[in-house]
Every structure is written in C-alpha cells, then in structure tokens.
Amino acid sequence: MSKTNKELAVELYSAFLISSGTLFSSPNFKGTVKFPDNDEMIKQVADLTEKLSSIKDD
User: Fold this and answer.
1) Other beta carbons within 10 Å of 7
2) Does an H or E element contain 36, and which?
3) How far apart are CA 54 and CA 15, in angstroms?
4) pLDDT at 3
5) pLDDT for 39
6) How far apart are CA 46 and CA 18, in angstroms?
7) CA distance 37 to 44
8) pLDDT tens, residue by residue, 2-49
9) Which residue has the higher pLDDT, 58 or 1?
10) Taking the model in full, what pTM does it have?
C-alpha cells in the first residue's frame, strides 16, 4: 500500500529535522540554532503535502 502525500510530507520533514540536529551538533557549526514550534511544523507539513500532491505519477 502506498503512502499518502501527508505521510510522505511528515517523513520528509522529520528527516530534515534529524539531519539538522546532526549538523547543529557538529563542533564546527557556528550558526544560531532555531527549531520550529508546532504551528510552524504543521504549516511546513501542509506546504509539503500540497507540493507533493502536484507531482503526477507516470
């Protein structure tokens, strides 16, 4: 069974957060760390869902 666009969006965003944590934990990282709050995450997942739904299967 294939995954819905919303499930794919959540997985993609989760992978982004995990990779960001890896980057931020590097001793060479000199930037400022800002993680999104719940509302920002929901907005990002909704945006990714919309974008994924525009991709047509061949």
Assistant:
1) 12
2) none
3) 21
4) 85
5) 92
6) 19
7) 11
8) 888 888 888 988 998 898 888 888 888 888 878 788 899 889 888 988
9) 1
10) 0.63
Where on the phi/psi map is residue 25: left (φ > 0), alpha (ψ -120 to 50), or beta?
alpha
**∠ CA 2-4-12 to the nearest 5 degrees?**
100
The torsion defined by the Cα of 57, 48, 17 and 29, in degrees rounded to 10, comes to 100
Half-sphere exposure of 14 (CA within 13 A, CB side): 6
Q: How many CA atoms lie within 13 A of 58 on its CB side?
A: 0
Nearest to 35 by CA among 11, 17, 15: 17
Instruction: DSSP letter for 26, please.
Output: S
- Cα–Cα dist 8/24, whole Å: 24
